[in-house]
Amino acid sequence: MEQRENRNLRNCRDRRRRRRRRKKTTRAAVLCVLLLVLILLIAGTAAAVYGLVKGDSREQNMGKTAKDISIDPRQDKSGQENPGENTAGSTDSHAGEDSRMKNTATEEHHKTNGLAICMYHYVYDESDPPDDLNNNYIEVHALEDEIKYLVENDYYFPTWEEVRQYVEGELLLPEKSVVLTFDDGARSFLELGIPVFEKYRVPATSFLITSSDGENKVKEYRNDFVTFQSHSDNMHRAGGNIGHGGIFTAMNHDDAVADLKRSVEICGNGDAFAYPYGDYTEECRTAVQDAGFTCAVTTENRRAEVGDDPLLLPRVRMLKDQSLEGFISLVE
């Protein structure tokens, strides 16, 4: 009798333990279901909000052509974020909210009178003028006045890819757009000019003759605003019989391409090329194309227009004694 009672007691205890375990299991399952429902509700709300935002964005962009879409200069041709346009210097450190880095052109408001690609050479300080002072120089304070004017008047500084798209009729540019270039990579520009562009956070191109201490110049004057591009490696010298007599017009194709590729390797860029002395032939253009350049500039004195050859672009010549008003008339 006593044994039967003990068994009954143990069975009761076992049943109570099993009921407690079932209750715990049931509560855990309920909690899991509630948690899953909560997660699904949160995800659904987020998806609905995202859909509304995307829908508004799609509606705002409906009817726009490719020309209406601005191009971020901080992206390379593949559309990927470009942390540095080159190893020598880039425009990439501009603040993302800087209006000068945004293409604001529309079908109603865009540049219609041609793009001024400004051609400068050397910079000097009037307190210490060089012995060979000539029209290819600009006084550093005059240069600063010009850059300050561009900044204060919200000018846009297109990339070389944008320049190419502009002349090919694939991209609109803002009414106030300009490209700034300095030929030869002279130390007068590197020492006096670069600080101006750093001060005003404005991008410019330095066309560098890389055989003239190019590697050291690229390393020494590396900065965030002036980009080193090719003015050839060793073709800025006499030897031809076309134009100013630059040797490029007399070189064979393979040698010319090899020279250009050396300069690109040193500069760290192949976006743009400036023909030495402005001399070129159709064979020179072919070599530039085969070297992979996006754009190339000559010394033809006018604005670049839609329909121009991107590998034979004209430029607007900047002279030593031009006034600020004269500069404005050349770029506006």
UniProtKB/TrEMBL annotation:
- Please list where the region (Disordered) is annotated: 1-23, 61-108
Q: Where is the composition biased (Basic residues)?
A: 13-23
| One Pfam family, short name | Polysacc_deac_1
Stored InterPro entries: Glyco_hydro/deAcase_b/a-brl (IPR011330), NODB_dom (IPR002509), Polysacch_Deacetylase (IPR051398)
Query: Which BP terms in the Gene Ontology apply to this protein?
Result: carbohydrate metabolic process
Annotated NodB homology domain ranges read 176-332
Q: Where is the composition biased (Basic and acidic residues)?
A: 1-12, 61-79, 94-108
Alphabetic keyword roster: Signal
Q: Which residue windows does the record flag with biased composition (Polar residues)?
A: 80-93
Could you state a single Gene Ontology molecular function term? hydrolase activity, acting on carbon-nitrogen (but not peptide) bonds
Question: What's this protein's name?
Answer: Polysaccharide deacetylase family protein
